[in-house]
Amino acid sequence: MTHSEFLELILADESLVRNDRKVERGVRRAGFRDVRRLEDFDFSFNRSIDRAKVFDLASGHFLRQAKDVLMCGPPGTGKRHLAQAIGHAVIRSGALVFYRSVFDVVRDFLHDEAMGGEEKVLARYLKPDLLIIDDMGMKQLPKRSGEYLFEIIMRRHEVRSTIMTTNRPLADWGKLIGDVPSASAIPDRFLQAAEIMKITGRSYRLKNAEKTSKGTKAPTGSDAEKDK
């Protein structure tokens, strides 16, 4: 190896190390609930998921178009894993990502509003290239939730991309938010430039539970006597 080749190798290695550190910082800032990657997702379990669309989203093209994504489906079908995995993938491409459950979003605004810092928390939600709002539909939200969510969606619309996951039909959002005008305005604005992914099928978590239960056999013979 010549001196120039050795120097080139050292510089390439340093570049890789710096990029890895940058990704690690981006993942920490994103605040993911879990660190999920697409390579860890079992696409064979749920054939309803459009694999090509998922990997297209992971490429980050939708960020450059400021498009939104709505993932709909029953609990346990992979929405959260896919949303976080797409977020992780675009971080590696240099994007700034912020992940929050819908409950954390509302809690952030309620807390900062009480402290007089609502503009500061709003800026935190407007800055990222990709905002992921998870768990829409798990339970009813506190009062004024619709106002906070609509403000985020309206201000990010056609400027920055947002991914939302939900296990409830859009028609039920009014009951969850407790504000019918906001519940109508949020999906109307959000879906104007959104990719919709409908995920159906069995729960992956239940699949694992079934495997565990099948692997546990009832005690027989001397073992049964010991358990008495």
Automatic annotation (TrEMBL):
Pfam families: IstB_IS21. SUPFAM superfamilies: P-loop containing nucleoside triphosphate hydrolases. GO terms for biological process: DNA replication. The keyword ATP-binding applies. GO terms for molecular function: ATP binding. InterPro entries: DNAC/IstB-like, IstB, IstB_ATP-bd, P-loop_NTPase. Keywords: ATP-binding, Nucleotide-binding. It comes from the Bacteria. Residues 208-228 are annotated as: Disordered. Residues 2-211 form the IstB-like ATP-binding domain. PANTHER family: ATP-BINDING PROTEIN RV3427C IN INSERTION SEQUENCE-RELATED, CHROMOSOMAL REPLICATION INITIATOR PROTEIN DNAA. This is DNA replication protein DnaC. It comes from Roseimaritima ulvae.
